[in-house]
Structure formats: structure tokens, C-alpha cells
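Researcher: Structure prediction, please.
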Amino acid sequence: MNIIVKIVFLICLLASYSVSATIKIVTTTQDLASIANIVGGENVEVKSLTPGTRDPHYAEAKPSMIRKVYRADLLLLIGADIEIGWLPALLRSARNSDVQKGSRGYLDLSSSIDLLGKLKIATDRSMGDVHAKGNPHYWLDPNNGILMSQVIAERLTELDPENKESYRQRQSTFENKLAQKIVEWREKLLPLKGKSVVAYHKSLTYLAEAFDFKIVAEVEPKPGISPSAKHLNKLVNLIKEQNIKLLILEPYYEKRSSELLSKKTGIQIAVLPQSVGAMPEIENYFDLFDGIVSELKIAGNF
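Model: Predicted structure follows.
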């Protein structure tokens, strides 16, 4: 009987060790969660604080989110102040010293990206929802997805050096596949190269740069500011003058303004998934760009 008890105890001890050896990762978006899952594999447990259906600027620090952060070994965030409205309060409530800013368990991915749109002037609310540190929607350039995976793999290696080869191999596989897919996506979107496009918000700049089209105007007169009738009339004239054929926006923005522009000018609307999880079929980072490319091809009729 004593032997059986000892065996049971040993099994429980080993199981306990296995669980504790898993790195618990919390991410601020599903895009980060997707990449972390791929790079981390069986050595990590990943949970996202926000769903891909939501604008990551806005979230509420719910008790379930606080618990996730409290138990985390590593926090991955988009950064560039995109989570500024909710993440600091969440970190204070969670009281987990392992994932506070400055710790090894806190990783701001924006620090590894050459951000577009950095401002050298003082900002205020009259300018709308601007980001002085730079445009934070950098994950919408798949080339930045490669950089993100490299930085995540490096940090996982620091936290868990015993599994460094696993992280490096997984990251390399991800990078190679993504590089191949970028060539494929760019080829499919060649008809858009050099073309002028209208966007709803200043969040698709990286996407335009990655696939060589030009965003010449936004439906919003300023970031986060609803368009006025006067602004929409200006856009109608611009679209007609430049013969612009495509308007792009994310699913969570109001559609009335875009539909009005379409009715008055004939411009085609492409509602693009902006994040992993934005639509049921967008389950990972590769699906995200497959979905974006598909929607652009349908709306552009090419």
C-alpha cells in the first residue's frame, strides 16, 4: 500500500512540475496570441485579453482579464499606446510583478518595429485619436509578423532556455512559411499596385505599404472623429476626380458613410478582417491575410 501511495505521489508531483513548466502567456490581441502559439508550441499556454472582433483601443478590465494577467509569466502587447486606455489599470489591479513594465515578463512588440507616422509635435484631443509614438497597427504588414515572431522566440528562450531549440525551430518554420505566403499574396494583389484607395481610418497604412497601393484619404476627417456631411461631399468629389475604385474598412466601423459614398460614386467597399478572430474563419495569422486578400480581390473584381 505504501508503494502505491508513493507512486501516486510521484505521478502527482511530475504532473505538477509539467504544469508549472508551461509558460503562461497573456496577449493583448489575438494576432499576438496566434504568433505566440505557433512559436511556443506545446511549451506555452496562450490567452488573449481581447477578441479579434473588437477594436484593441477599447477594452474593459474585467475580473476574468485580471485573473489571466495575475497568473501570467509573460505579457505580450502591441504597444505604441494602442492599449493605453485599459492596460495600465489592468496591470495595477492584477499586481503581478512578473509582467510589469521593465520586467522580463513584459514585452512591448512595438519596440522592435520601425513604426510609421511618428509625430515630433505635441498632440491634443483636437487632433483626434492620434498616436505620437507611431501608428500601432503594424501587424497588418506581414513582414512585421516575421519580426514579431523573432522577438517572441528570443524572449521565450530567455525565460525557458531548456527549450530554446524548439522555439527557434518553430520560429524558423513560421518565418519561412510566412515569407512564401507574402510572395503569393503580393502576386494576387498585383492589380492593386500603385492604385489610389480610400480607407475609413488610419489603421490600414501598413497594409497599403506591404502591398504597394496608396491610401489617399480617410472617411474620418481626423482619427476617431465621425465624418460630417461637408467632409463626405469632399470625398465624393475626390473619388470622382481621381476615379478611385476601392474603399476599405474594418468590420467594427459604421457602414452608413461608406455606403453613401458608394451610392454617390460607385466606389466598391471591401470590409477587411483586421485581426485574427475578426471573422469565424480567421483562426490564425495566415488566415488573416488570406481573408484580406480574398476580400480585396472580390471588391476589386480581379
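Model: The chain has two domains: 18-113+140-184, 189-300.
Researcher: Thanks, that helps.
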